[in-house]
Request: fold
Amino acid sequence: PGSESGAAAGGGEFGGRTLTSAAELPERFSTPLPIPPVKRPARTTADTDYYDITAREARVEILPGLRTAIMGYDGIFPGPTIATRRGRRTVLRYRNQLDVPTVVHLHGGHTPPESDGFPTDLVLPATGGARFAEQAVGGRTSTGTRDYTYPLDQRAATLWYHDHRMGFTGPQVWRGLAGFLLVTDDEEAALPLPRAERDIPLMIADRAFDADGSLRYPSMDPRLISMAGVDADHMAGAAGDVVLVNGAPWPELEVDAARYRFRILNASNARRYELALDPAPHGGGPFTQIGSDQGLLAAPLRHTTLPIAPAERFDVVVDFSGWPVGTRVTLTNRAGGGGTGQIMRFVVARRATDDSRIPARLSSIEPLPTASATRRPWMFRKGRVTSMGTDAAGWVINGREFDPRRVDAAPRLGEVEVWRLATDAYHPVHIHLSPFQVLSRDGGPPGPADHGWKDTIDLRPKQYADVAVRFDDYAGRYLLHCHNLEHEDMAMMATFRTGR
Ligand code: C2O
Ligand code: CU
Reply:
């Protein structure tokens, strides 16, 4: 009992045993925090930036002295950051040089259906791709390359792009296919928030490694599954014992005694974290949340701890002048034991001038009108999955496994809907296309971290939440799914088709 929620909940270390052998575990806080490089457009016109990004295999140093084979956008993990402005059309000229099909999805993007990365819209390998053709059930495949067009007519926000291939998203993201896309806008740019080298994206992702440094995907390894105390029928999701931030194990960052803005993304396959800072600063409430998945909150919120489920983003300001110079401040995970109880470390290195401020008012957020909304229930729970010729335990929505040919709901463009998302276990639920507002949890008020515009919600076992959503434009088919990537791969997805 409880085994299925262990790894996904970030609790327990697979029965107390480490996955990565001790000899390979790097010393904590010995690697400087890398910052993913910002990609330059290959070509720019008056309203459009074109980016060439290639998915390919590469061997990179993650654990000191060892080489790890990854699948990386441009051969790096995380992939390059795309930094752009609201309304600048962004075209990703994507090339797949891997020997497997891939699909690119811009998570949080308000994107037309043909560029949203439906899981069977495969980009086949340039050579030998035909053997995967039958996996493209009802999809629009392309071979070798594809242009994804993102209008990005949306609020300033921390988005990310990652693989979304049906049935294989978990292993392909685990191997490295994830990167940031940052959108800014006039409203955000006018605020006196920390900027430039004091505005830092942090991609948190746990991984496990073999002795030779190669990535070990636990859910594919029966020995590890049994070590984890999780039988294959009740798969929790892939979890590791090494915490990477921006691709480096337990890194360290020297900071000025000043305010920093961190755009925190949990890019882990299945693990959720409860972030805290140790020691706590004078004055308490170390995290000042300024933004959520889909951009700025109306007003800042203080948190002592911050739960973060897979795919969620929190935009926070930490004021390092709250600690004496010389203090080592650890970003910890209260939901994790052993190595996963720590994430990275900051060293307050020096005094510095700081002209940043956190205004009392950040943005305005109009509540969606819900009085005449269509209501839809979505139940996320364990179930039988019979696709791909198997009959196995998997994860289903409203009793049905994902079928790319089926449409599960048809919301009308421009109309508000209230969706009740209910669970049996931990399920971080993500809705494509449009952001939502959390109205309630278990009939009570939203949680402390539910404010602002969201696209992913951290649902705990046997909870339900009501969220309001309105799809304003783009008619076509989109997804609703659990963002525990192993649940997603084991069929916990549904299709909705927007239209008039
Ligand atoms: Cu971040 Cu449908 O995914
Ligand atoms: Cu799930």
